[in-house]
Amino acid sequence: MKIVKIKTESIAHLSYLIISNNEAAVIDPRRDAEIYVDEAREQGAEIKYIFETHRNEDYVTGSREVKRHTDATIYHGEGLNFNFGEFVKDGQSFELGDLKLKILSTPGHTPESISIALYPEEEKKGAVGVFTGDTLFVNDVGRTDFFKDEMEKYAGLLYDSIHEKILPLGKQTVLYPAHGAGSVCGGGIADREVSTLGFEMDNNPMLQISRDEFIKKKVNETHQMPPYFHKMEEVNLSGNDEPFMNYKHLELFGAQSFESKMKSAQVVDIRDAEAFLGCAMKESLALPKDMIGAYAGYFLDYDKDILLVGDNLDHCKDANNELRRLGYDNVLGLLKGGMTHWETSAKPIEQIQLVSVNEIEDLSKDSETILVDVRKPGEWEGGIIEGARTLFLGDLEDNLSEFDKNKKIVTYCGSGKRATIAASLFKKHGFENVACFMGSMKAYNVKNS
Amino acid sequence: MKIVKIKTESIAHLSYLIISNNEAAVIDPRRDAEIYVDEAREQGAEIKYIFETHRNEDYVTGSREVKRHTDATIYHGEGLNFNFGEFVKDGQSFELGDLKLKILSTPGHTPESISIALYPEEEKKGAVGVFTGDTLFVNDVGRTDFFKDEMEKYAGLLYDSIHEKILPLGKQTVLYPAHGAGSVCGGGIADREVSTLGFEMDNNPMLQISRDEFIKKKVNETHQMPPYFHKMEEVNLSGNDEPFMNYKHLELFGAQSFESKMKSAQVVDIRDAEAFLGCAMKESLALPKDMIGAYAGYFLDYDKDILLVGDNLDHCKDANNELRRLGYDNVLGLLKGGMTHWETSAKPIEQIQLVSVNEIEDLSKDSETILVDVRKPGEWEGGIIEGARTLFLGDLEDNLSEFDKNKKIVTYCGSGKRATIAASLFKKHGFENVACFMGSMKAYNVKNS
Amino acid sequence: MKIVKIKTESIAHLSYLIISNNEAAVIDPRRDAEIYVDEAREQGAEIKYIFETHRNEDYVTGSREVKRHTDATIYHGEGLNFNFGEFVKDGQSFELGDLKLKILSTPGHTPESISIALYPEEEKKGAVGVFTGDTLFVNDVGRTDFFKDEMEKYAGLLYDSIHEKILPLGKQTVLYPAHGAGSVCGGGIADREVSTLGFEMDNNPMLQISRDEFIKKKVNETHQMPPYFHKMEEVNLSGNDEPFMNYKHLELFGAQSFESKMKSAQVVDIRDAEAFLGCAMKESLALPKDMIGAYAGYFLDYDKDILLVGDNLDHCKDANNELRRLGYDNVLGLLKGGMTHWETSAKPIEQIQLVSVNEIEDLSKDSETILVDVRKPGEWEGGIIEGARTLFLGDLEDNLSEFDKNKKIVTYCGSGKRATIAASLFKKHGFENVACFMGSMKAYNVKNS
Amino acid sequence: MKIVKIKTESIAHLSYLIISNNEAAVIDPRRDAEIYVDEAREQGAEIKYIFETHRNEDYVTGSREVKRHTDATIYHGEGLNFNFGEFVKDGQSFELGDLKLKILSTPGHTPESISIALYPEEEKKGAVGVFTGDTLFVNDVGRTDFFKDEMEKYAGLLYDSIHEKILPLGKQTVLYPAHGAGSVCGGGIADREVSTLGFEMDNNPMLQISRDEFIKKKVNETHQMPPYFHKMEEVNLSGNDEPFMNYKHLELFGAQSFESKMKSAQVVDIRDAEAFLGCAMKESLALPKDMIGAYAGYFLDYDKDILLVGDNLDHCKDANNELRRLGYDNVLGLLKGGMTHWETSAKPIEQIQLVSVNEIEDLSKDSETILVDVRKPGEWEGGIIEGARTLFLGDLEDNLSEFDKNKKIVTYCGSGKRATIAASLFKKHGFENVACFMGSMKAYNVKNS
Q: What is the ipTM of this complex?
């Protein structure tokens, strides 16, 4: 028996391939799903089951994609109206090679959430693992804020699911959740990729409190809700996604044709923050490649072509894959030859001013300068630079009207990356005097400690 | 925090790389050690500690190799006289990024065996994992037969180490042993790559019995003890191994020069069993590449050159790596152009007769035929073909004199692979009428069930 | 300017990608065409033109496949009724970056054959290369035997095309033909991958003779004409090929289901000859992977499923690619676990006897033995073993009735590979006493020299 | 027969592997020489000969490295005092499989330069190729300025070598030179990777003129002579280079230790120009990775440690390889975590101002601004921006004293890359007001055309 964990770093998503005796099951596959099919075949196994622990909202699931290439069946919990796949009931069992997989109905994060217990031998000998989806994480639990009017109800459901269904499997059970640290699906997930129910019972702060306290805490939590979630929910219910694993190419546009395509497109510059500061198109959104998973869903439109500016073809292909995981099938192509080609073609370029930690003190006191802290509310709690305006990056574009275009704008975040995205948004919307504090709060704290 | 498991299939060996916050530790590295150094660097981490849970006897450890490329320190338990590295004491702790690693002295398999508990936070919050070396496996425990005169003592030590040091870490602790199913270091290891102390407490048969029963069982166990173990023990104590990770090439020999080199060398044919049956050199040992880890140590001499016959250069390179893991640095080169080149050069070739499941019944009753079952004693318990002579493959070469060269020899094992090795040994030693039962006991059981 | 040569070893086919200044042209692409599209994109170029020098008969051309992934146009010479692409005229020119490509109408091999001259600067400065398709090779010229009634006419056309169109480009012109040594499209092609028109003028034997001698020689040549050529001609005219570059998987069949699928399928064993001799299914055709290009087209049916027996999944995937290049889209899947699985499942297995060079003399004199030399007519001219029956491998299956099933059949060829294919055909058709002379004529000549 | 061309893009260097019948020869190998050894072995061939067409001055030759891993012999022409290898004479022949290689003594570029003619059959049937080293290129000839006092003599020698030794091989001979377009070893080499002696006779401008004109032209040519050439000449004569192909790692330094190592080291920032502009260390030299081959030799000291700032580990490994090709074995390590880590550690950062094509006109007229054109003399001939100071990038560091630190410095080149290097040099040497014109002359010409 073998359990292969497949991690998608950009959205801190964890999926699993379980193999026993030439049979395989996939849990919560992502959209670029060759990895499951190929791995199973390499091991001489055929994928028999595809389980979705819940209707995911942060990425397009790969269940249909796996199914396109295998004879597997897709399974969901009951409670939502999926247009594809089969429904499973609490307690239902599946044979997989020498193993037994048993469904636990664990609503709370969503109404149809399930967990899956893994028994290597007979059930009475105990579970060795449990796949908890977004119900229980390492050091945290799933969010329960998707149904705004029923947050208490769902928080209570989650508490009960954990305490009545999952924890009774026993301390010896290894925990296999659907997300790791950094996911928007849970703010307190620990950066530790290993745990057991026993370790969580003793240490997970959300398991140390009463049902009432639990509900209270959950109801008061705030979580990001990027607008693309609605699109993902829709796609993952209806199953209307394009096939993914075909040989498909991005087009290469010269500076001239890129410029003409730009008029009706969204330009996304996926280079590193420093390169964007140094030289970029005014109209482009800075979105360094490793920020796509977390922030593309706030800024990009599904109905407008996307054009990429990157280091090279492979860089853009990777970005395209990241975008397609979020359902963006509308990338048209990329700037051939990158920024060098743009520059030498005499096309318009701009720079964003760099602010270093030594200058920030003075700037924060300057009445002609507005400091903007674009981190998340939870991060502000650790302290902000005096005088800074706090405004979460995801909310920035809707609130630009409140800033004075005659003042100097200095953005910051934790390290400077999100600050660069923010600076690009200001530029794009006509602010002329924009600067970015590289190093941001981390540098600030180092200097002031 | 991240734990990367590196598995060496050929000897079912498990080693680990633990990374936290730019610092890394390696546990029981193998000799081809780029994998640890490269992986750590890719993650931006430097290897700080190398732990050997015990003096390994089934492969050359890679501790010195890792050390050659890093600033790490090698650590052993106390009780054996290592010529390199530092000694650790029971209870000693090491900081690794945000983690704490704590040494448990767990003698039994060897006198200096240690286990290493992994605490992600404070110690009082409990361990999340334990690296048990050859002390505790999934579904089995380590062997205690290395000190023939003190087997009872070591069996008792192992029992105490498990019950007093390891199991008290708690049910929630994930188990990270040094071997998986198929290792000669434990006959009953389960083919399940996941477990916890809790699951083992409930299910590992060796943990369900009293100290006395445990000792009795251990003393009565039989294990293979390939002759190369002594060489490994010596190298792993003295540290006298050659550097591994240099760019070094195998020589390519044409049929003519191969033939002349053969006179003073051991010829190892690493092709599949079927190809060996079909056409091979009489003087060559059949040792399909995936059997090297398990059987090379019985047949190959450290002081005589090795020549390879394989499918192609890459095939031979892989075999060379497997052999170097076992300390065989004496591979000289390979037959250029493989068997085709040998055949077309008019060099001597032979065939071994194929026996199928439909013929075996008659052959077993034929007085002019000797059936030889070369499996392990434990396998014979499940039944043999009536009339067969049982003789473990590893013991075959020393007992050839008892076979009548005038009779037909038919070898068999579980599937036919080891039977092919056995058949090649008979041929090499002058038996003319040799056949191999492909499918062997598995086919026999299918047919007779 | 860059010319990338892409060689398909199995059919000794050469195709070319020409890149200049962000524009690319492909000449005679093969069906698995990612290599052209990917390479061009990596170089920042878009494929603009696809040229087919002639309607190929030995593989499915990749023109439609390249077109599916680019905006390129396909071009053919005039004289055949292609269902796709555009026609070009003699003398027509194409700009490609800084280069000029000029069409030369060079009928002879086929009526619409073209060659393409490459001018790096102005035409008057001379050509630097010429793409000659199957018109002119290194040391040979194209075959002219496709129109049986008009062989003289086509031989004359070829002579004129070479002497009036190609050679006038000048001695300095580098030769880029569509085939290298080993192709069925020309028997005398030299194993030298570099030439110029000047070198050929001086050394190519077919350019040293008069028009009359040339025609006479061509008319008297014999060439293999595998039956699949007709299918290729049809597909390459009609353009009715399946898209190739999709993510598509072979199915894995266990022994049980493989056996039941076998009843209505062709089983192809792609393992090495020695492995087939050692142990194989009686019903399977031996076709070592590297023989697929040359011999699959003689033995495999387009309308019957193909099942593969190979070393592993990757081995079978490669074989499937080779087969698809020849238009075989009917591979259903492979035997999971290979022959070991088959053997241990107690399924029927057989061996083919090995004959070595030391036994062949006696066998050739034995009246109960028939030696069969399955090489090509041209090879027989160099001498055969006395008493052998010569019968080209491709013609064997149609002539089995003339062999006596009561006699021992010993097959041979140049090395033993084709002899193994032949032996498998005899076995498959009910001959019981079949042996294969490994080393074959090469060994025979070594021994007798 | 097969000729494999291995191109090292960074220095436009071409080396060759010739294989015939299991024997191989290498011509002008580079220092990272696995590629030759591996390729030969993959083809089943052993390298027998290593030829150096001349004592190279622009890279460390890989002859000793190839020799370390094979039994090959190294050969040079006569006329320089090599400490290793054997000498060959004009007319000397070597058998290589079926081929013949014949040495032509072709002094001119250096006194011991040789060319090597390739005969596939008998010599009287003509050469099919010639390896000309730095004697004859596509569209140009080798430079003859290494012996300042004897430039006329060497120019004459080169003319005679070409006309008396090389061209007589005949028009049909394919040309295999040691450099392609972009090399400092010849300014007019065409960007066309294919030619023949016939095509060059007709089109190479240096072959259309008389001996006197040729000498006059050569004597008046100017070529870059980077200071590292002297080191290369010394190493390539003495043979004192370190082994290359060992597994060796770069160290990873955190911001703190990097900063302390910086004091006695050279910091090289290999990121893209735009990223350097955006945010960099003041003390670092901008040297985008693809500029290392052309410019490292002007700026880097062999006796001082080198520290790298790059995008990631792989990026720095590539740069280290490029540097080692030029003999820089003194790279100590890299900044762990790249610039982000530096920024968040509150270390000093700076920005270089961006100048776009729309601003350059005004700046060129501003008396407080100095425009510096850092291109090569040959490029200035095509026009400069009015008022600009021309100073070749390689000469900049020695002439900084002539610039006024109170003025604004604006650097430009062809595209902006070399301008970024120049800007970094100004910054490093204390100029505060430094800007870089991205797009540079290419953009300027687009705008003004």
A: 0.94
